[in-house]
Design brief:
This protein has 302 residues and is α/β, with parallel strands linked by helices. It has two domains: 9-47 and 157-294, Rossmann fold (3-Layer(aba) Sandwich), CATH 3.40.50.1100; 49-154, Rossmann fold, CATH 3.40.50. The chain is built from 13 helices and ten strands. The strands form two sheets. The chain has a six-stranded mixed sheet. The protein has a four-stranded parallel sheet with strand order 5-4-3-6, sandwiched between helices. Helix 3 (48-63) crosses helix 4 (78-90), helix 3 (48-63) crosses helix 8 and helix 4 (78-90) packs parallel to helix 5.
């Protein structure tokens, strides 16, 4: 099905991202309060942290003389999905370098057929070498002339600048804990940088086997947050790794929608909310804790 152009005429609206409280007998019993920052309501396709990451990158693109945006991601990538939608919305040609063998799914179908993204599939070893800069990617990129290069997940300094705006400064005083999903780490970096060492910040990793000291901490080097001690990354709820799921996670996602009328998904937000509620059950959070969870979007059909 080809979507009507009207869907792509809707502009992202950060004012739609309100903070609401979730009510549950569990929370009352444990004497904690759980709130959600509804970033998923910013835009139907470019929602949550993907809009935050793209916002200043899109401005940079418009201010310079690039011909297209080239970026990287897996077959289920929220970033590929959102970048393609942004390109369609702003009449920018987009190119996606996709990790692994050629596959079909609704994410890639949306990017290519609905939004016109040009897709190129490359083997996983080459993809890893390029994205982790283990080889010189100049030769590979020479075929894509005058492209604005966005890294995997869209995380760069401009993306982190956008993610610093997710939470208002006064909210760091209001909440004892702030929780977010972690993929490439850009969203978490922005939240930490904006926190001024206030609140306890927990990143829930959707990835398996990541050395976060190596992969994430460099985002904070040469910033005022280098020595902040108010954050950590939890890797207990990845359910097997990126885009992996298990029946208990699928059941949880259904029940969460039933109980709170809020949709979540299995790649990022489902794992984070599973972790938060499991930790509430296990009394990880002290009585009178106020927890803010960032719903970073990523809602789509797989």
């Amino acid at each position: 099905m080809i979507l009507n152009q009207d869907y792509f005429d809707i502009q992202p609206n950060e004012n739609n991202s309100e903070i609401i409280e979730l009510k549950s007998d569990l929370f009352t019993h444990k004497k904690v309060r759980l709130f959600i920052k509804c970033d998923y309501l910013i835009h139907p396709f470019i929602s949550g942290n993907k809009w935050r990451k793209l916002k200043y990158n899109l401005l940079f693109f418009k201010e310079n003389s690039f011909e297209n945006i080239l970026t990287f991601g897996g077959a289920f990538s929220n970033h590929i999905y959102a970048t393609a939608a942004a390109g369609k919305m702003m009449n920018i040609k987009t190119i996606g370098i996709i990790r692994g063998e050629k596959v079909k799914n609704s994410t890639l179908d949306f990017a290519q057929n609905e939004c016109g993204m040009e897709l190129h599939f490359i083997n996983r070893e080459l993809y890893k070498n390029i994205t982790q800069q283990k080889i010189d990617k100049t030769n590979f990129l020479n075929q894509f002339k005058n492209s604005f290069i966005l890294p995997e997940g869209g995380t760069n300094s401009l993306a982190i600048q956008g993610c610093k705006e997710i939470i208002k400064s006064e909210d760091y005083n209001q909440f004892s804990h702030i929780c977010t999903c972690v993929g490439t780490g850009g969203t978490l970096a922005g939240i930490i940088l904006a926190s001024e060492n206030k609140s306890q910040i927990i990143g829930f990793s959707s990835l398996k086997g990541i050395d976060w000291q190596k992969e994430f901490v460099p985002f904070l080097e040469n910033t005022e947050a280098k020595n902040y001690q108010n954050w950590h990354i939890n890797s207990d709820y990845h359910f097997g790794g990126y885009a992996k799921k298990k029946p208990e996670l699928e059941k949880f996602i259904i029940n969460f929608k039933t109980n709170f009328n809020i949709p979540i998904e299995f790649v990022y937000t489902g794992k984070m909310f599973f972790g938060i509620i499991d930790k509430i059950n296990k009394s990880y959070f002290k009585e009178n804790s106020t927890i803010l969870a960032i719903h970073s979007g990523g809602l789509r059909n797989f």
